[in-house]
Design brief:
Layout (H helix, E strand, L loop, with lengths): L10 E10 L2 E11 L4 E6 L5 H8 L7 E6 L2 E2 L5 H6 L2 E4 L11 H8 L7 H10 L2 H4 L10 H13 L5 E5 L7 H16 L3 E5 L3 H5 L4 E6 L2 E7 H6 L1 H8 L8
Parallel strand pairs: 3-8, 3-9, 6-7, 7-8
Antiparallel strand pairs: 1-2, 1-4, 4-5, 9-10
Helix pairs in contact: 3-6
Length: 246
């Protein structure tokens, strides 16, 4: 009996190359992000993970290969057009507008007006500090609080695909647990997520699929369950054990 046909990935990178100045960072990346799942992108520092996210978003232009989103070639689209197609990006740099209040940051991120306050209440259920500092300029917040604002900005309206770069960096353990709950509920709403993360305990319990990068290429793709169960594979691909980073 033939196996059931797998749904087409929401995002596919085929032989993607990216040059930044004289440096050839991505060297033929092949990557598929399944629809409605959380895919983790792992790799040592400098492997090309952040460059991959920025290239998908059009912030750095691919110099070769193709990027397809929902079957549409977005390789040459501008970043605003890619965002309008339904992709949101949360950079590692906790990008917020420092002089604007938390509320104003979210209003600016919402494409539709007025802002859906029911959805804002849902987001604040994970990050209560947002309501506490609702009228506070984001520049006065701590690093962890700014990260909450950055994530809230990305999901203040429903997105089809969320690109997130190291969201737990600098966050307290309690906030990391809230973030995990938020990502799980986002998956339940059919949001697809591509996540770069170094907190292996976090992704071990959250990821569905995993791709591992090395030297600008994807060198392994499979399920997170299989990688988490195979310490020898972890050592070979990452030079460490996931269990050693609980």
């Amino acid at each position: 009996m033939a196996s059931p046909k797998q749904p087409e990935p929401i995002l596919t990178l085929s032989g993607v190359h990216t040059h930044i100045g004289q440096y050839h960072i991505l060297q033929g990346v092949d990557l598929a992000v399944p629809r409605g799942a959380l895919t983790v992108l792992l790799g040592r520092n400098g492997a090309g993970k952040t460059t991959t996210l920025r290239t998908i978003m059009g912030l750095w232009r691919a110099s070769g290969g193709s990027i397809r989103f929902e079957g549409r070639d977005i390789t040459r689209l501008s970043t605003p057009d890619i965002a309008r197609a339904g992709i949101a990006y949360v950079p590692e740099s906790m990008s917020v507008f420092s002089t604007l209040t938390v509320r104003e940051n979210l209003v600016l991120a919402a494409r539709d007006s007025p802002m859906d306050m029911a959805r804002v209440d849902w987001i604040c259920g994970f990050f209560p500090a947002l309501k506490k500092f609702w009228h506070t300029p984001a520049g006065y917040l701590s690093g962890g609080q700014k990260q909450m604002v950055a994530i809230a900005r990305a999901i203040v309206e429903p997105r089809k695909l969320l690109l997130v770069d190291e969201p737990t960096k600098g966050l307290a353990p309690a906030i990391v647990q809230s973030l995990m709950a938020a990502f799980r509920e986002l998956k339940d709403t059919s949001t697809s997520i591509l996540l770069v993360e170094q907190n292996f305990s976090f992704v071990k319990h959250l990821g569905d699929g995993v791709s591992v990068m090395d030297d600008g290429r994807v060198v392994h793709a499979g399920t997170m369950r299989d990688l988490a169960a195979d310490e020898a594979l972890q050592q070979r691909l990452l030079g460490l054990s996931l269990d050693s980073h609980q």
